[in-house]
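Extended Data, panel c. Modelled sequence:
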Amino acid sequence: MERVESHLHPEGSFDVDAHEVPTGREEIWRFTPLKRLRGLHRDAALDGAAVGAEYDAPEQVVFEQVEAGSPVLGSSGFVPTDRIAARVWHEAGRRYAVTIPAEAELDRPVVVTLTGSDVEQATATHAVITAGPHSRATVVLRFVGSATLADIVEVVVGDGAELTVVHIDDWADDAVHVGHRHTQVGRDARFKHVDVSFGGDVVRHDTTAEYTGPGGDVEMLGLYFADAGQHIEHRLFVDHTAPKTKSHVTYKGALQGDRAHTVWIGNVLIRKVAEGIETYEENRNLVLTDGCQADSVPNLEIETGEIAGAGHASATGRFDDEQLFYLRSRGIAENEARRLVVHGFFNDLIRRIAVPQIEEELAATVEAELAKNVLKELA
């Protein structure tokens, strides 16, 4: 694939020393509070074992521990583009693979729960999820507990397969999580990625996707809720490496409490070979209280004009006064009106997840987040 020069997606390398220790002045690090990463970006030991995994899946799915150097690692085409990812590649203490056989149609989701038990032991993990050609499956990765974690999750979607992967960060308030997710989408395959971030002190996810053939379709959905002092950062890159491919990115977030900070960076590269593609990315942020900051930066890099369509949108705002007035004028109390507005903001996105148990859980989590601050103040 022809190299494209861009500061938004630096050239990758497996060599840790090829990646300088970030200072915060680099474009890809300028929003991240490096001092709160507990040395993950420098040379903190990643040999902890404080994140354990539990697994539940239909019997036809294969779950196995793999060793460094296994050919399944890197099968997505992932190459580290920052120092943390390169360190995880070499130093991960647990590596595992989840394989859905070709043509399998799972009757329930694969669920992997990763539980942290100690923030003092920095831990690194590496996972590969493979959906065989023409399979149909949903995989849920849930992160809970207290941890300092750096991880890589590779996803390979075979030709004609349909795969949904849901990441849920429901950490305790002291957790730090720097994650890298990379997906390779096959010919005529469909991939839906759902990234949900509620807990943790600092959460930063780099999520990327590329295509190996025409007809691939990527949908990325994100939902996040930042409380006082919390930093949640999502950086996305869709690389249209094949013609007649599609991508649609929609992320929505809410912020409440002093120094709550969210970052969303969306980048789409349309290469010269990617004729006839369609892409759209959007980010919406709802600021619920004073003292919050939401940074949102959509980007499009276009190498060919022979495309079906491309666009992006970004907006950050407070409660819609007209909506509140409408509800209150009909006898609805202010705290109930605010609750309804926030649920309405998230509900259309939640419904698109199309995993009923996850949809119900997220609606309840949004309610719990509101009770922490906004509704409490108005009670």
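Helices lie at 83-91, 321-328, 334-351, 356-372, 374-378. This feature is highlighted in the accompanying rendering.
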